[in-house]
Write a structure and sequence with these properties.
The structure is a homodimer. Helix content of chain A is 67%, strand content 6%. The first copy, chain A, is mainly α. Chain A has three domains: 133 residues, MgtE N-terminal domain-like (MgtE N-terminal fold), CATH 1.25.60; 102 residues, Roll (CBS-domain); 170 residues, Orthogonal Bundle (Tetracycline Repressor, domain 2), CATH 1.10.357.20. The first copy, chain A, has a three-stranded mixed beta sheet with strand order 1-2-3. A three-stranded mixed beta sheet of chain A has the order 4-5-6. In chain A, helix 15 links the parallel strand 4 and strand 5. In chain A, helix 7 packs antiparallel against helix 8 and helix 19 runs parallel beside helix 21. The longest helix of chain A has 31 residues. The mean pLDDT of chain A is 89. Chains A and B meet through helix 15, helix 16, helix 17, helix 19 and helix 20 of A and helix 15, helix 16, helix 17, helix 19 and helix 20 of B.
Chain lengths: 449, 449
């Protein structure tokens, strides 16, 4: 059953568009899931994509628009009138609607919001636009079922039915007090089995997980993952229930966070994929390479300072790539462990404890590696003092690299900066420089040149 | 409301255990979510953890056991009798139960399975143990609601109620034919509104997403993420409905896959975290560092071959760390883009097309970087031929590194090997060696020594 986007299918769609065979196109696409139609649109020219958006009913196309690549959506929306966009928005849940509108240029936002027919929907969307997109408020939707704790069961069932019509998937029924504050949740089973004269408060379950509007997306993801939740209510600073977040949005958050961290570690500015243009990929990659080049200039300049070595102990230079590589590798390893621990929220205890642990770890690894290097360099240089200098330097470099790799992400995190930038070119480059400096300085001290 | 594991709380729990204040302990823990109790257990000694597992009822502890770290679970289960484990298993859904049993030593598995009271449950668990843990079969549970397409609505409602008792969260009602083959799904709303004399087939929705038992966990995750599903049915090779996978398990799969790829890219053997012992962390890190050391030996040996340079053009050696670092950075960037594209299933088109794209990209980046290096090295060496040789080498190195970084993951993927191992020390080390080789060979050719 798995949908596969074949070249034949694409050609068929394009042929239908060119011959304006609308009924055939409708027939073909109506069988498909909106996520599959979105995949097709991602591959079409913008004119053809707009043709399909205009052809299909707005119930389908609104969902399709949510699933296409962001740059395709941007260009397609540019071709549509404010009224046409508003029609799409009308079909979307408030959270998706707010996401689409937030991507529009400032002046179009107002136009589109004014064109939305359902004024209640428009008001809710405007409320959502206030929140930062990486916060719980930015992720939540307004569609939820809430009942007042003072209602009777009988009165509540009708209210629930009304609200349920607007909600695609009913995850939970939330209980609030007269002020709208979140008080608990209801089990549908309990509602059906309770006597109709009962009050909601009698059967409400007081224990309910929730997040605050200002909590970060990452915190929400950690909470929902930890407690295996499919939806979580969101309250404002006063404890008033203002929305809910569903797991499908959190799955996207988890995936995007992971992709972002991975790209940062690899020295790629976030948000590119393999299908982007050479120009976009260059913009994402070149800045980090320039950083690396600058690092290389620094290493070269540092080595230039030790001109005694260059004349008397040129053999030392055979080992600079080894020293730099080991400094980079150790730094990346130790920073990755810390970055991941911070993301999963299981870094407990202070910075000092971490640094001491990394010190012992680096000493253990360093001892093994330095011993091997001593043997190799003795064989290579046939000079035991030089071999000793080289391997002691490696030992020192590994310790410093491990400590730097541990300290930097912890420091960045304390400062409120995403520690993920510390893994990758940033740490590799600085450790390369530190490594070379330590190597030549220690060698000079030991050998004496 | 967010639970936080404080030192005070831990001390309180330990104090209660030491004084054997069971009722106070019960009172304290009964308020907590099982995921929070699991966090506490992760920090306790094994004796204390076992004490709590024995104290609490098996309904709670079975869930707690699912949430503790794998090594804690292993040690706690060692302390429990087969009968005690079977009691925990009895409380778990089949998928969780199978996960726990699969971690036991071979001979204990049999003992525990024989002690399970519910024989139907035991049979289902045994069936699940057959599947690879990274496949749809290994992720699925047997708890689901299925109805026969030939039943009448009236007959089906009772059957559904019976099955629903065993299912914690009802996600979907699946429709099967007489052979048990998946035919569609039911909307609960349609069931409630249909005439009782209708047949199920009349109201079944034929369009239903599903996966096969042998599909990889990653494919299941991609499907559920793409279609925003909260549950997906699993069929066997004959199309017979055999289980269902829920989104909470998939969230864990996505997180684990991402963590694994991130660690591999950083040169850490999978499955360690910052709280593991120094010994475990060394086992995860040292092998990759040894690979790096070996790479360093190779670079040193290669440079040793160009002894003409060492005597006549020692300046060339100032730039080896720069060349090696750039080769590593470019290789990691290009491989990361491919690895991520492969994981998200959006690498379309052949290998050649990718390589040509990377070629142009590398040429563009290489031109910018080589120009800057030419200026810097001209200033540094005051020798235009040498500066030209150095910068042309960098240009060549960047192109080769980009192509290697693109090719290796695509090649590994074709061979069925996880391409993620290509990003990280593996590609950095091989590119270091290639880079140095190209650098000295080209310099020698251009300058002539």
């Amino acid at each position: 059953m798995a949908f596969e986007l074949t070249n034949e299918l694409l050609e068929q769609v394009i042929a239908h568009i060119e011959k304006k065979e609308n009924s055939k196109l409708n027939e073909l696409l109506s069988e498909m899931h909106h996520a599959d139609i979105a995949e097709i649109l991602d591959e079409l020219s913008f004119d053809n994509a707009v043709y399909i958006i205009r052809l299909l009913d707005s119930e389908t196309t609104s969902e399709v628009l949510m699933d296409v690549d962001e740059d395709v959506r941007e260009k397609v929306l540019q071709q549509l009138s404010a009224k046409e966009i508003a029609e799409e928005i009308d079909e979307l849940d408030t959270d998706d609607a707010a996401d689409v509108i937030s991507e529009l240029p400032e002046e179009r936002k107002q136009e589109v919001i004014q064109e939305i027919e359902d004024k209640e929907h428009a008001k809710e969307i405007v409320e959502l636009l206030r929140y930062d997109e990486d916060s719980a408020g930015g992720l939540m939707g307004k569609e939820l079922i809430k009942v007042n704790e003072n209602w009777s069961i009988l009165g509540c069932i009708n209210k629930m039915r009304e609200q349920a019509e607007e909600v695609t998937r009913v995850h939970s029924i939330y209980v609030v007090d007269d002020d709208g504050k979140l008080k608990g949740r209801l089990s549908l089973k309990d509602v059906l089995m309770a006597s109709t004269t009962c009050k909601i408060a009698d059967i409400a379950i007081p224990r309910v997980d929730f997040v605050e509007v200002n909590d970060s997306a990452e915190d929400v993801a950690n909470t929902m993952r930890k407690y295996d939740l499919e939806a979580i209510p969101v309250v404002d600073e006063l404890g008033i229930l203002v929305g809910r977040i569903t797991i499908d949005d959190i799955v996207d958050v988890i995936k995007e966070e992971a992709d972002k961290d991975y790209q940062m570690a690899a020295g790629i500015t976030q948000d590119v994929d393999s299908d982007d243009s050479i120009w976009e990929l260059t913009k994402a990659r070149l800045p980090w390479l320039l950083l690396g080049l600058l690092g290389g200039f620094s290493s070269a300049s540092i080595m230039g300072l030790f001109d005694g070595a260059l004349t008397n102990y040129p053999m030392l230079f055979l080992f600079t790539p080894l020293i730099a590589a080991m400094a980079g590798n150790v730094g990346v390893q130790s920073s990755a462990i810390i970055v991941q621990g911070l993301a999963n929220d299981d870094i407990k205890g202070g910075v000092t404890k971490r640094l001491i642990k990394e010190l012992f770890l680096a000493m253990l690894n360093g001892l093994v590696l330095a011993t091997l290097l001593f043997l190799f360099s003795l064989f290579k240089t046939e000079n035991s003092v030089m071999a000793l200098a080289i391997s002691i330097s490696l030992f020192a470099v590994i310790i410093v690299a491990g400590l730097v790799g541990t300290f930097i992400p912890l420091f960045l995190d304390k400062r409120g900066i995403d520690p993920a930038i510390a893994t990758g070119p940033f740490i590799t480059t600085s450790n390369d420089i530190f490594g070379i400096l330590i190597y030549f300085w220690l060698s000079k001290t030991i050998i004496g040149f």
